[in-house]
Amino acid sequence: MSVLTATENHTIPSYPLITIDGGEPAMIVVREANGVDIIIDDAFLLPHRKDYYFFAFVEQGGSRHWIDFVPYTVKPGHFYFTVPQQVHLKEESTPVKGYIAGFTEEFLSLEENRMLRRLPIIQNPAGAHELVLSEDDISYIEDVMRKMTIEFEAGGTWQNQMLTSWLRVLVIYLSRLYNEQYGEHCITKSYCLLKSFQELIGEHYASQHEVAAYANLLNITPGYLNDVIKQQSGKTAISHIHNRLVVEAKRKLLHTDLSVKQIADELGFEDAAYFNRFFKRITNATPMAFRQQIREMYS
């Protein structure tokens, strides 16, 4: 595959969840892929982010899809899922048969949906993106998503309540499969702190590079934060911050033509030379060397 970079302004576009026809903002969208029509916009053939959780149930057909730096061969009998702000890239626009669904952070923030945020398919502690389905799983998921699609297209009284109910069933069922395939991860107060810390990094990585800043946002001491994070993840709190900065830098190096100085500026580094040293210390390669290596690898 030749490496595709983002749009001419050198940024990776981020797309919100919108209704199928009107293009209005939405909290939940469900639709069927009939295996004939292409339902993916051409813009999705370039690197992009989705501002929402994305589910795809594939019954027939397939293609190659990149999530960050990992390629997936989309196959029948599999279920795919991503979280907001990961970088997506489809290699080709080919029809598949199945169902897709998207829902937003706003949806999960509703009082009646908050329990969903704690479930494995949403928390995704294993960093996975794929579930292998049995025949029984395929039948169950197809039935639920078909009913969701019918409700979504028909509209009517209490549509949101119906869609929410079906999505809750789907998320719980998928979370069972997740635990079976990736192992159970006990949800404790300490684990919730880890997830809250990671979410804050996702929001503030470009402006806050120090553990103390995140501890202040969480109303705890830096020492306590570091102890819990290390106990839960095996890594120090500062390494989580640094790793997120490196991931974002790698995304920009692969998918944009921004200069190293521009990337350093976007990530909150005042000095491009310091950013070079920071990146090399963690990756053992300079930003430009990484860009050359990664593009040669994926060309």
Question: Can you describe what's shown?
Answer:
The longest helix has 24 residues. Helix 3 packs antiparallel against helix 4, helix 8 packs across helix 11 and helix 9 packs across helix 10. A hairpin with a 2-residue loop joins strand 5 and strand 6. The protein is globular. 46% of the residues lie in helices and 16% in strands. It has two domains: 169 residues, Jelly Rolls; 109 residues, Homeodomain-like (Arc Repressor Mutant, subunit A). The mean pLDDT is 86. A five-stranded mixed beta sheet has the order 1-3-8-5-6, with no helix packed on it. It is α+β, with helices and mostly antiparallel strands. It has eleven helices and ten strands.
Architecture blueprint of SSEs:
Layout: E1 14-15, E2 28-34, E3 48-50, E4 53-60, E5 63-67, E6 70-74, E7 78-82, E8 87-90, E9 97-103, H1 105-109, H2 120-123, E10 130-132, H3 135-154, H4 159-182, H5 189-204, H6 211-218, H7 222-233, H8 237-255, H9 260-266, H10 272-283, H11 287-297
Parallel strand pairs: 1-3
Antiparallel strand pairs: 2-9, 3-8, 4-7, 4-9, 5-6, 5-8, 7-10
Domains counted in the coordinates: how many? 2
CATH superfamily of the largest domain: Regulatory protein AraC
The poorly predicted ranges are none
User: What best-fitting shape do the alpha-carbon axes yield?
Assistant: globular
Cα distance spanning the termini: 5 Å
Give the C-level CATH assignment of the largest domain: Mainly Beta
Summarize the amount of helix as a percent range. 40-55%
Mean pLDDT: 86
The main sheet comes to: 5 strands, mixed
CATH topology of the largest domain: Jelly Rolls
**Helix count from the secondary structure assignment:** 11
Structural class assignment: alpha+beta
**CATH arch. level architecture of the largest domain:** Sandwich
The Rg value, from CA coordinates, equals 20 Å
**How many DSSP-defined strands?**
10
Strand order of the largest sheet: 1-3-8-5-6
Strand content: 15-25%
Instruction: Return the string of H and E elements.
Output: EEEEEEEEEHHEHHHHHHHHH
